Amino acid sequence: MGKNISNVTTTFQFCDGGSCQKAKSEIAIREARAYLRNNGLWDTTHTIKTRCNGRCEDAPTWIVQPGNFWYKNVTPEKATAIMKSHMEKNQPVEEHLLYKEGWSVLLTDNERTIAPIVFKNKIDPELGEALVARSFASDQHLYPLFQYLCTEPKPIAVQQYDTEIIELKSSHQVLYTDPYEVEIKGKEVQLRLAIAGMPKNISEEIIDRKVSVAEVIWLKKISTFTKAIRLKNKKGKHLVTFWIKEDDRTTWNHILSIYLNMSPDHIRISEEV
Questions:
Q1: I need a surface site. Which of 9, 70, 177, 194 has the fewest CB within 10 A?
Q2: Do 87 and 178 lie in a common domain?
Q3: Residues 87, 40: one domain?
Q4: Which of 106, 121, 64, 59 is nearest to 87 (CA)?
Q5: Burial degree of 198 (CB within 10 A; 0-12, 13-18, 19+)
Q6: pTM flag (> 0.90)
Q7: Residues near 209 by beta carbon (within 8 Å), at least 6 away in sequence
């Protein structure tokens, strides 16, 4: 029989993503769960391994609810202290906190800053003079992007590998049920791309269609299609390009704001050539 969650008053979310595992998160988790067992608190407290909590620089991290308390750099010694304080006093251990409800800043010494994406002037070997922005190639960015572009008809076109450009005139299915690959299929296009993280023993066939480079391109020449999203594998092999028409402001603005986190009214362009 599973735990009766109606009795649970406190939930601990233990990150055990890659960075936290390297920082020996599992040892702290074992101490925390042992404390709950030995103190008769198992039935009223729930613990969850969450995978990545999104704060790798502060690994290992925990989240405690209710209260939205975030803890950083949790060692086995800190684990027991945090457990005792919440369970016996219903209070956080302030000196170990990364964040709590109401704070406007994070208490971290390891903040990583990510440079904003910018367009740079390039002479592209295939496309000529263009503005090119190196963009995101992870599945959490590409899968929603494919959904947006393909599940409802839009004035876009697709060019697979080095074949001809095909306009999409109908809705296409975007299926991401495989552990590594997304499939786009419909009347005009049949396409498989690997977009998830890969184990070392994956087949060369899948590696060949793994998206490692994503570029948003803005051509300087005048034509029907002047914007594009081009995807390549690790070796630089062209996998697919999604072409956007010059007059399709809606799709282009979506790419800028959602995919590149850039205001359509303030497009970031580097002065460097």
A1: 177
A2: no
A3: yes
A4: 64
A5: middle
A6: no
A7: 181, 192, 193, 194, 233, 239
